[in-house]
């Protein structure tokens, strides 16, 4: 490997153009040197914009993985193709990071997990919320102060936005992946929940499709039991009528409580907590303002370190972890079909 870490972009659509490349370019060592898209003209346009040589715009995925000058591949494909890309990465021993959710369904996701366990090739799922600064602050600074955690309320809701540029993409209008918008955005929310409180054991929920444009059920109201026995509620959806976009995570302990609020209306995200085992012992509320990092930049720094060290143990979001996030959404959908019955979250 040269001083620069050369990577290829597979899938040169909106997110690659508007987010991945501009973010990765902040990391000096990383250099985009190749591109592929099913519609080659789109890859050529992308390559021209980012000074990638025409000769490095490939006609097939296999050509990308065969290129010895490429150190890793950044894949942004409709998730039903993630399994195919993983197989190529292992075949050609090429480190791969790929967009969430991990796969279109749990059968594909389980195969990805099984494949990842048979190889030393680094395979990382891009779930950037895992890198939120707030997670470490909550776990290290605040949770120890509020005693044993007994419950939580996780609330992330907002209004429908018909001008959302991703709404027009075919894989969102006609999703073949589990949960459609619920899994596309929901795995971010689940990543935050589980990074703080651990794995989910079971879920009882109801889902509903509010907007035809989303192509599938798009809101979720549920009750959740964690592996630790902690219980709580999880509400998610952005298909409602006019309302404030509200995002908060309240955790209740035996010696206090905390509220993490990252609603867009705030200047900065905040963690507010108070301690005390009962009303008469309640402390003053303490507010921590969070200077949040660029989580997408942080996830690529993580993968850079993985590629340089050639050590998949450094990966923060493994296929097994990403499987769990998708499995929670699948369990919620199954629960809704069973009139809200409690459904165990499937293991990989």
Describe this structure in words.
- The protein is built from 10 helices and 14 strands.
- It is an alpha/beta fold.
- The strands form 2 sheets. The chain has a 9-stranded mixed beta sheet. The protein has a 5-stranded parallel beta sheet with strand order 2-1-3-4-5, with helices on both faces.
- Helix 4 (82-91) links the parallel strand 3 (72-75) and strand 4 (96-99).
Structural features:
348 residues, alpha/beta, nine-stranded mixed β-sheet, five-stranded parallel β-sheet, globular, Gfo/Idh/MocA-like_OxRdtase_N, Gfo/Idh/MocA-like_OxRdtase_C, Gfo/Idh/MocA-like oxidoreductase N-terminal domain-containing protein, nucleotide binding, Gfo/Idh/MocA_oxidoreduct
Describe how the helices and strands are arranged.
Blueprint: E1 5-10, H1 14-24, E2 30-36, H2 40-49, H3 61-66, E3 72-75, H4 82-91, E4 96-99, H5 106-116, E5 123-126, H6 133-142, E6 149-159, H7 170-173, H8 181-197, E7 200-208, E8 219-226, E9 231-240, E10 246-253, E11 256-261, E12 270-275, E13 286-289, H9 295-309, H10 319-337, E14 343-344
Parallel strand pairs: 1-2, 1-3, 3-4, 4-5, 6-9
Antiparallel strand pairs: 6-10, 7-8, 7-14, 8-9, 10-11, 11-12, 12-13
Domain Gfo/Idh/MocA-like oxidoreductase C-terminal: 145-344
GO molecular function: nucleotide binding
Protein name: Gfo/Idh/MocA-like oxidoreductase N-terminal domain-containing protein
């Amino acid at each position: 490997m040269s001083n620069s870490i050369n990577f290829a972009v597979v899938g040169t659509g909106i997110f690659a153009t508007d987010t991945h490349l501009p973010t990765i370019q902040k990391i000096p060592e990383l250099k985009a040197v190749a591109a592929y898209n099913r519609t080659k003209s789109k890859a050529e346009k992308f390559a021209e914009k980012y000074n990638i040589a025409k000769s490095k715009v490939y006609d097939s995925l296999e050509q990308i993985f065969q290129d010895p000058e490429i150190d890793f591949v950044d894949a942004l494909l409709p998730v039903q193709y993630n399994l195919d890309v993983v197989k190529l990465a292992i075949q050609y021993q090429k480190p791969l990071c790929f967009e969430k959710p991990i796969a279109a369904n749990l059968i594909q996701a389980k195969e990805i997990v099984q494949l990842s366990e048979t190889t030393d090739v680094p395979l990382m799922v891009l779930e950037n919320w895992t890198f939120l600064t707030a997670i470490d602050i909550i776990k290290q600074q605040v949770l120890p102060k509020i005693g044993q955690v007994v419950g939580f309320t996780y609330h992330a809701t907002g209004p429908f936005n018909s001008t959302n540029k991703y709404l027009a993409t075919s894989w969102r209008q006609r999703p073949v992946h589990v949960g459609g918008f619920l899994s596309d955005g929901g795995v971010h929310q689940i990543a935050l929940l589980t990074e703080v409180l651990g794995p989910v054991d079971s879920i009882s929920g109801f889902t509903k499709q509010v907007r035809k444009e989303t192509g599938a059920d798009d809101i979720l109201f549920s009750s959740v039991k964690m592996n630790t026995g902690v219980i709580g509620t999880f509400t998610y959806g952005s298909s409602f009528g006019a309302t404030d976009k509200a995002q908060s995570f309240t955790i209740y302990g035996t010696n206090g409580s905390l509220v993490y609020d990252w609603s867009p209306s705030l200047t900065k995200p905040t963690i507010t907590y108070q301690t005390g085992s009962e009303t008469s012992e309640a402390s003053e509320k303490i507010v921590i303002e969070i200077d949040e990092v660029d989580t997408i930049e942080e996830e690529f720094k993580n993968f850079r370190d993985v590629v340089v060290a050639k050590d998949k143990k450094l990966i923060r979001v493994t296929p097994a972890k990403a499987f769990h996030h998708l499995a929670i959404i699948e369990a919620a959908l199954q629960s809704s079909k069973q009139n809200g019955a409690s459904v165990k979250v499937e293991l990989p």
